[in-house]
## 1
Amino acid sequence: MALYVVATAVAVFPQGHVDVTLQHAAALMALWMVREEVARSPGRLAALGWAVVAGGLAVAAVALSPYAGRGVADQETLTAMALIGADGRLGASFQYPNTAAIYFEAIALLAAGLAVSSRRRVPAYAAAAAAVYILSVAFVLAASRGAVLVLASALLLLPAGLPAGRRMPAFLLLAGPLVAAAATARGFMESGAWRDWTEALKWLSLGTLASVAGGVVLAALMSAPPRLRGCFIVGMVAVGGLVSGVGFTATSPADLVRRHLPQHAARLLDMDWRTRNALLRFYYDRDALKILQDRPWLGGGGRAWERLYHQHQTFWYAASETHNGFLQTATETGVPGPAALLVFWAVLTYTGWKGAHAKGPEGTRAAVWPLAAAALTIGLHSAVDFDLSYFFVQLLIWTLAGAIAGASFPTPTVDQVATDEAPAEQRQTGPNTSPRCGRSRRSGTAALRGVHPALAAAAGAVVLAVALPHAASAVATHRAWKRLDAGDSAGAISLFRLAARLAPLDPQPHVGLARANPGKREQIDHLAAAEARDPYWFLWHEEEATAHLARQDWIAAARSAERALRLAPTRAQAYYLALGAYGEAAIEAVLTGDRSAGERLARRTVDIAEQLVRRRQATEPVKHLWPDAQPALTPVFHLRYGQALALLGDPRRAVPHLGEAAKSAAHRIQAEIWLYLALEAAGQRDQAAELKNRPWVRALDINPVRGALRSVQVDRAAGTRYLLRAP
């Protein structure tokens, strides 16, 4: 939190930085509140854990509801099923299935750990088995390769921190329902795809009941004598080995998975660093390190990656987050950020382990490690994905961390305080029980009791003072966009102005005001205001260039396009805007008699066109990674490149490009006029004769423009302008 406050001075996107800082402040407040509550009443730790599990089940229910005909209107059912598909990935409750998968996995770990830590084994095991099954179904349908890789570690992580008698039950509570979920997922998924909601619910109910039965049997087994329990475990291992041996003899496990869940298997079994996703993550991390190299100590503030990565990428790709939570933090806060994050995870691991093995009530101690294991599972996955960029994930982790800290360092009870305040001769002596030590501990505790509420109240007041106006601004902006889409420009302008007053750092209201005033001076002014608030976002500069082009202010459009090109040097649209602006400015200069300015502008047009060609050649090896990685050479490119070469007195190089542009119906007239002039200037009269009978070419005899290419006086009649810019 302190690092984000310091980074405020260098934030490249002030509003985004405020948003991220508020999220961290809210998460820190959640940690403090949960820690204080659990420290006062450690017995509430298990209840808090089960509440988190209940929340996870609610999320899983929302995610699975379209498969069971819930939460989807009839007219949208086919669309939803097309998005999900019979073998498609889960995408109903999250924009990003990988985060959904690791979230469900972490909650399943928590449920299993809490169950084996409970004294009431039968209801706890049954509830946990049902919860783990439902969460596992959602996990399987999410089909996340990263989460599957973490799963192997998670299945060992939870038992590793539990007492010896609880390790095997915890493993079985995780593995059993997971196998049941894999077995029933296809039937559930296909029934949902065919809109057979009853059958889908039957599959889900079958798996749930089987898991509950397994949980009850496991609970009964744990209450049995040790010898019987050992015999059962040995028998279970023997049966499992026999089944596995038969399976390996008959066919490979991969083939079984492929037959059962074809599309999921194709995705999950395709784990290779040479795959598209793996290579893209490599490029994301490399570009994040480039940003860190430029801003090593303070970073660029919240959402710095989103605003800076286009400057460093070697080919065009769109990724609002880098797929690495540590590097995301590094781009925002510099090197100290990931260092602090590593310290946080190390402290959480140590505190969870020590808390689970410290003296205290057995139920409280046993519940500490499952919370730590759930948080660490998400932390492991955040190294390959952007889980920590989601506020709800941050809130979950900081809540779990607060509960772990509160249970590990509980507030002294009344009896303990009374003993601490007793005269020295009435207290037991020991290493830390001297009168001086007692007074120091007592005075420090009293001081902290008074400071903590005051600091929390002050921090809460600051967060609310900043967050509430911004929330109101977001609501007003959302309503304004709806009104603008409905054609109510006046109502939209009023709401956008209100939003701009409530959130003075937010560029969105000014962008809305610009789009509500097309063709007016206010459009340019509000786009400039948006750029001032968000100077590193190329889209605002592109939009301003487009507005200047509509007003035929070619030089201003060229400047805006140049700024967009500097911020996103791999984006094709920025090149096309710059080519259009400089090309029009060069023609305008020649038509007005300023030949030197025309040549200078035409030379810049050629430079931009050749830069685009080099960019296209450089992206040849990676064009398979991203659909838009390699910029296309459109008819606009050929037209502007050919015009600029012709104006610079190089008609032979101009002819192929103008000929290519003439193939486009949208640019045929203008391209053929310039092609005819270029062929004539190059002495290729035979080819020029083929175009001479075109109506738009014959009109050149009425308003000759040949002089534009020969440095002689130009006819500045309106007809000449039309012919040079014919649609």
Note: The CA atoms of residues 608 and 614 lie 10 Å apart.
## 2
Amino acid sequence: MSFIAGLTGCCIGLLTKLYSNSLRKLPYMREPWEHLIYMGVGGFSFYYAKKFIDREKNSLRTMLVDLDREDVYGTQDKKIE
């Protein structure tokens, strides 16, 4: 799934540059090295955002499992609902 996030970021980076050129009424593929920079930044940011979200999900999941295992309410037989 990280590949798809990176690919999506690359596409959004490319489309951002194309849209910027079209708003300024310039040729779409003017300065193609900027397209590569935008694609790289977009891919990098989306890839690491996906990685961060996955890490936070795993952290939250382990925290909830640990919380469920320990006796939060001081009772051993039942939990207060």
Note: The helical segments are 2-23, 32-69.
## 3
Amino acid sequence: MYRISLRLLSAFVLLLSLSQLTTACVQRYTYMQVFYYGSKTVVGPILRFSPAFKGKAEIEMVPDEYTKMLSPIAFFSASSGTTTTTVTTSEGTFVDGQLQTAAQLEQQHKQEAAEHKAQMASITAMMNRHVAATTQQLSDALNSTAEEGWEVTQMASLENGGLVYLLRKKK
């Protein structure tokens, strides 16, 4: 009886010490989330930290020509420019009150097509610069967190093209 109780006590002490050892080996972490709202963001922050990182809870997009073009204020503001009036009758086609020949009309259509193509190329270049700038801000934020010892453990995408990063850091 004495031996059985001694063995049970020894086994209990061994299990207790092993449980303490495994608890000591388990790492403790602090977690943080980084919300990236995507390059489609025009107004407001493009990144949010939860909890705040280095005293910052969010990072605003520096307004660029693309965000200025798409901002609601610019969208509803009056635009400036010139327009032409084209009227076609049985006598011919008149542009701003002047009768146009077929060659003049063809030249005008070519010029309008070239202007439209140049405008689309300009907008595409603006969008590319905007996407590159937002991507760079995300990369800079993640690199900054990595320098402080944070590591990305999970990433999930949002419906609007945004991302959520789960980061952790040893306590």
Note: Residues 43 and 143 are 24 Å apart (CA to CA).
## 4
Amino acid sequence: MEPGEFLSPAEPLLTGLLLDSLGWNYVFIFLAIGSFTSFVLLLTIAEPIPHPAHA
């Protein structure tokens, strides 16, 4: 199971819980942290470089 398969369905639930208990400021902070974490993870992906003999 990949991390996105677990976290994506859970995000609306976590957002709703934060909104009910803490307010919109914490919701936006939570979503910003999640987006930043996803962006950092995206930056770590290394694209495969084809070998010149196979190109």
Note: The longest helix spans residues 24-43.
